[in-house]
Amino acid sequence: MAKISINLATGSFQKEEIIVGIDLGTTNSLVAFINPDKNPQVINDAGKGILIPSVVYFNGQNEAVVGNEAKEYLTTDPSNTIFSVKRLLGRSYKDVAEHKDIFSYKIIDDDSDALVKIHAGDRFYTPIELSGEILKELKARAEHALKTPVNRAVITVPAYFNDSQRQATRDAGKLAGLDVMRIVNEPTAASLAYGIGLDPSQQKTIAVYDLGGGTFDVSILQIQNGIFEVLATNGNTYLGGDDFDRAILNYWLEKNNLDVAEVAQNNILMQTLRLQAEAAKKALSTQNLYNEQVGDIWCTLDKQTFEALISSKVEETITACKNALKDADLSVSDIDEVILVGGSTRTPYVKQAVENFFGKKPQDNINPDEVVALGAAIQADVLAGNRSDILLLDVTPLSLGIETMGGLMDVIIARNSKVPTKAGRQYTTSIDGQVNMKISVYQGERDLVRENRKLAEFDLKGIPAMPAGLPKVDINFLLNADGILTVQAIELRSGVKQEIEITPSYGLSDDTVEKMLLDSIEHAKSDVEQRMLIEARSEGEQLVYTAEGFIKKHAEHLTEAEIAETVSYIEALKTALATHEKDTILKKADDLNEFTRPFAERVMDAAISTAMKGKKIE
Ligand code: AMP
Fold it and tell me: Are 407 and 69 in contact (CB under 8 A)?
């Protein structure tokens, strides 16, 4: 392997190699780089288009097809065509259940607290794997267009993404064979694209208004000494240009005296009308009247009517802006710049509404679909050390985290995080009545702790005995400006607390750091695969534990045959657990869940009716 030197101050590599910026979007994704003229530029590989639909289709052989080609299967083979996977990244079924109707593919709902999985073809996929497929396609296109290997990237995420969603995005990058140099907030990237924040002496407060096809968010950022701080975010992850299209469609159906339910039966007609509605909306961004015909349906719309149709939706976005300002404790006059992101900000009515609210003209010179990827490319260039004019903050060169089930590394402070910093996460117990919890602190980039460097270990003792999953243990990492890490564990229900201090850099030579980073890159893909197997195993083992406990405790509510069959499903899952095959384990876990689900409901009903006995209902 070629020797690459690493800048310890930034944790980044110093070789002349292109680092790309990637906007991994809900609807579309794209990739950008800094061209030889030192300007950010989006990649259009072989004229296939800049925007790559974030859609993955699995054919009969479980092979993934990504982009426009996959999009064509949305109508013909919806159950094997995965769209909007970003909505599922790092989320549990509980998080997405409310909106499950929008997904045409099968989301596994066995355990509402575990991360979701998707069933397509005869396999189970995690959103990480699916996003990994999209990133693989972006990487391939970038390599083809730039005629050079692309191994490193900066990937953007919404400012409101939590730790688990950010980690999932990182993992997806690893699966695609990318070293993810940094996860950057989309509004931060958009600001960088406009050159805001590049001058360290600049101090500004900005609002980034992002209205895409299916999501809306607004972020208030404060830039000071080259540091971007998100003061507040607000929005609605189920509001966007698609709603405008739907409003137009319904208007046309009404004008043509057509029954929505009846037309909905005809999938192809619906699809054609929806596309026509989108075309009308786009046309009305530059003209005053749209007039077309689909069969004998008149598709006419003037600008004024269109604006009336969308006004309540746009008003909703403005309310979100008000709320974001309120949360940031600011008023409109405090905002120095307003930036527009997302295809739907091309609608003049939207632009005007934003201008009216903030009382200033928003920045809209850069293509709103491309601005985030362009900014990510600039951030990548900064990390590559190519912009000496930009202040580089003191960052931690290796990730810090703790050991979780199956010997996995759970990163709490990611490598390249600026110091001082603090971060935390909540954990729980996996066994009923567990009173101690061992907390092992590690440093490094590998997914298995045994490949990383152990920094410390301590026991949180005296957790009151409770059923598994009930205790809430907060683990907080605080890394101060001198590089000293304080780890604190506290059980919230009882207040039991324990704390230690560590110096992570102690005894670490530059060579060791370099070796640890290079190892992590070399093993990235196999690490993530191993991580997913371990997660499937832990889930499976937990399910065996719960199911065995359940049939013991609630035997009186089950028939003998039911118990026997449950036992045979448990045995099948145990056999699967011994195989070390992720898909087999997930399949058997799913089978056991499907079979036992009605029993849980039965026990619940019995419990409710017992509770009701003797109680008077007024
Ligand atoms: P994004 O998710 O940022 O790619 O935004 C996609 C949304 O922008 C879709 O709802 C598009 O219909 C919408 N869009 C694209 N071009 C225009 C345009 N010229 N006028 C209005 N909306 C547009």
Answer: no
**CA torsion angle 303 308 310 313 (round to 10):** 150
Task: Report how far Cα 343 is from the mean position of its chain's Cα atoms.
Answer: 20
**Ligand 1 in contact with 429 (CB < 6 A)?**
no
54 lines ligand 1 (CB under 6 A): no
Among 494, 519, 544, give the residue marking a domain's end: 519
The residues annotated as belonging to the active site are 23, 86, 186, 210
Q: What is the CATH number of the domain that holds 546?
A: 1.20.1270.10
pLDDT above 80: residue 267: no
- Entry pTM: 0.78
Alpha helices in 38-175 (DSSP H): 68-71, 73-76, 93-96, 127-146, 163-175
Closest CA to 429 of 493, 502, 487, 499: 493
Domain check: are 504 and 467 in the same one? Answer: yes
Element at 595 (helix H, strand E): helix 582-612
Phi, psi of 606 (to 5 degrees): -60, -40
Express each pLDDT in 23-81 by its tens digit: 999 999 999 999 989 999 999 998 899 999 999 999 989 899 999 999 999 888 888 99
Q: Are residues 476 and 548 in the same domain?
A: no
The reply to whether 453 and 498 lie within a common domain is yes
Grouping H, G, I as helix, E, B as strand and the rest as coil, residue 487 is strand
Domain that holds residue 423: 400-519
